[in-house]
Amino acid sequence: MMKVAYVRVSTTEQNEERQVKALESHQIEKWFIEKVSGKDRNRPQLQALFDFVREGDTIYIESISRLARSTYDFLSIVRECEAKGVQLVSLKESIDTSTPQGKFMLTIFGALYELERENIKQRQAEGIEVALNNGVKFGRPKQAITADFTKAYKDWKAGQITATEAMKRLNMKPNTFYRRVKEYEHKA
């Protein structure tokens, strides 16, 4: 029976120290720490954790949001723990899956986290719509067609140079070059 901790922050700029401090008092014997988004279940340290744990082990997390960001993923992880005979303890929510109340609360908190995430996405979409209606432009600004581009384009179309040579002259990657060609031909 081993005490194992899973710690995750979303970006390399974030610091996992707060979670580690919260978990230290539980005499953790093995740590799995990673800096990656929680929206995807395919995380290297999460996979390593599940390869490592055995029946009777307990996984400690600082909060449910560190383990999963959707109800589906969260419940899937809990089921995987149950299938392996592994308990899950979340400090922030005071949940322990070794109890029926803990199992029930896990389901409720998982649903609440997913609701919160969907609300954030909805507000973001609404904000983007308002910005677009106010004339805000998103993405990279379109570059003006230069005399160098026009010359290279005409030489290429006349068969005097290859597309590769035109790209070299203009210092452009293929996707950029062909996107510019499309824009140029559309304007002509």
UniProtKB/TrEMBL annotation:
SUPFAM superfamilies with a match to the protein in the record: Resolvase-like (SSF53041)
CDD domains noted in UniProt: SR_ResInv
Domain Resolvase/invertase-type recombinase catalytic: 2-135
Catalytic residues identified in the record: S10
Cited Gene3D superfamilies: Resolvase, N-terminal catalytic domain (3.40.50.1390)
Protein origin, superkingdom: Bacteria
Keywords recorded for this protein, A-Z: DNA integration, DNA recombination, DNA-binding
UniProt cross-references to InterPro entries, sorted A to Z: Recombinase_CS (IPR006118), Resolv_N (IPR006119), Resolvase-like_N_sf (IPR036162), SSR_resolvase (IPR050639)
Family assignment from sequence similarity: Belongs to the site-specific recombinase resolvase family.
Protein name per its UniProtKB record: Resolvase
